[in-house]
Input
Amino acid sequence: MTNQERMQIKRQAMPEQKPEVRRHNFSEVPLGFSAETAHIEATRCLNCPNPRCVTGCPVHVNIPKFIAGIANKDLNAAYASLIADNSLPAVCGRVCPQEVQCESKCIVGIKGEPVSIGRLERYVADWHRENAKAEETPKAENKKLTKVAIIGSGPSGLACAYELLKAGVEVTVFEALHEPGGVLVYGIPEFRLPKAIVASEIEGLKKLGARFELNSIIGRLYTIDELMKEEGYSAVFIGSGAGTPKFLRIEGETLNGVYSSNEFLTRVNLMKAFREDAVTPPIRGKKVAVFGAGNTAMDSARTALRMGFEEVSIVYRRSREEMPARKEEIHHAEEEGVRFLLLSNPIKFTGDENGNLRSVVCQKMALGEPDASGRRRPVPIEGETFELEIDTAIVALGTEANPLIRQTTPDLPCNERGYIVADEEGRTGKKGVYAGGDIVTGSATVIKAMGAGKSAAQTIIKDLDL
Amino acid sequence: MPYRILEKTKLADKVYSMVVEAPRLAKVRKAGQFVIVRPMETSERIPLTMVSSDPRGGVKLIFQTVGYTTMELSSLKEGGFVHDLVGPLGQPTEIPENGRVVCVGGGIGTAPILPIASALKAAGNRVKGIIGARTRELLILENEMREVCHELMIATDDGSYGEKGFVTTVLKKELESGNVDHVYIVGPIPMMKACAELAKEYNVPATASLNSIMIDGTGMCGGCRVTVGGKIRYTCVDGPEFPADQIDFDELRRRGGIYREYEHKCRLRAEEEGLG
Output
């Protein structure tokens, strides 16, 4: 097939649950490619000699190679080249913002639509999970006698663990919660990332030899120094993730009914409040406003619909163009019936005599000159406010730095906002201590955290001369 | 990763003491810190204070069965297992040296005040304890408190034991004597509020330990936020102790009641299931 012919093939559509059905259930929304669709989509790849897509991937997956595996109907080869660089392909295939990473660099995308790299990644990972035999899991060779501690079992910690395990390093992952996975488990909802998939990816790491210590809060149960001096760890990677939630800092924010997205999502995802038999109090109401317009805001809004809220609004002070969420998530939310109140800035919450939330008052905004972030700054339109009746508010504005490790590791350099200072390769200012993910960069994406974890692992291997 | 229950005793109506095996935790815990417990694989996460460390490598927890989860916990038997236990959480109590302090524990709040009083005594402070309950049968840890206080005073609402009245009545007398450098308060919110106001009136600094609703306990969910000195603070990572005169107790009480209706339903369910 010539490149000309390949470029004639249309980008294959992803089958999805219908909006009116899925807004009432927690099952996954996109259903995945069939073998046939995946094969057609794979043949759209031009297999560029100098693939630009790879440069758009934070963990540098050899994209043309794994897609060639699908095109050649050798899915084992496809999986092998995928897993060589990415420890969590089933996760990344679902939650990575491919449209601004690999797919944004795809040559096919210049004149038409780019190759569906993410959907193909998911296809290969899912195929492997459902069909591969246990012995095909890559086994680490050359066991080293070095132990490395990883703090946090979220994306950065898991990616770091994987890279170290492949090099034969003994790895212990310390997790504060009762289940491993970090944000993949407590944050991202089931309908976007089924928890069985996360569990299976973690199972894969256990097979490679990773040890998971749950309910273990580093900084308190062991300090970083205790891990290194008393427990025999040669290096420590900190991937502790998100910290305390940011709030709007407006009047009435402590009223009953105002939640952080972290709390709302944790109750539903980690504590399984969506199940009928759950003992965790579900957050239930009729009308909810979600503040913010990132992926977490979309997750919260769509989760609220599924928890039975009748009216779900996203309230955002800028316009559609500036919304940081993935286009696909915004699109899904809209299809499911989430209402978008854009250019609306909350200025206060009001409550009833019992302190229960009753409404939010918003200021109408217009877009002005670009600000430091390059986005046009929203400015208030004098005298134009409106009141929205709500019984629940979910604030999804991101998080601050988690203070736990900083408080208990005085010689670990942090910046003025409390984030750990680490160089490009993951080294912190404390010898033997590495860091990556949200605790370094602030709120980012799963794949960026994975990239940081992977790169820190390579630095550890280099620094320890393994 | 279950945690073995080394000992379980009933201290009073609906109040239990449980020693749970967790050697590292027993070694590193300090006064003022707490754990989060999940009794069973399907349970909620609830915060509980660690009262003491046990020589067998366990931590002692004391709790009252107030909702579904504490009822689940109370249904577990000695030799059985708690499904999850994580800690130590929260900032340890700041312990001054060689001062004159009063430790006030109301109801189940006597359990968290015990390790604080104990640490204060060990640091050379002169410790007076005031503990109270509605009635004599509900009073807990009297002997343990006697051991860690130079002097212990007791108040019961109905006068069935010790002074008749509230702990505040006794605290007021102590504050009046002028020999108090610091007051530590743990108990029901109205009691803490009243004690905080008293201490302020006598210009004596006071610390209160809070027990807010929380999920992760690591500074992630924000459910445990309280207003202290006009600012949002998190009980789990900034607390659980705060300067008593700066805490917005009314807000705390209101927020603590968010799930009251739901808790009631759960309690009925627990009773039906025979957990209580």
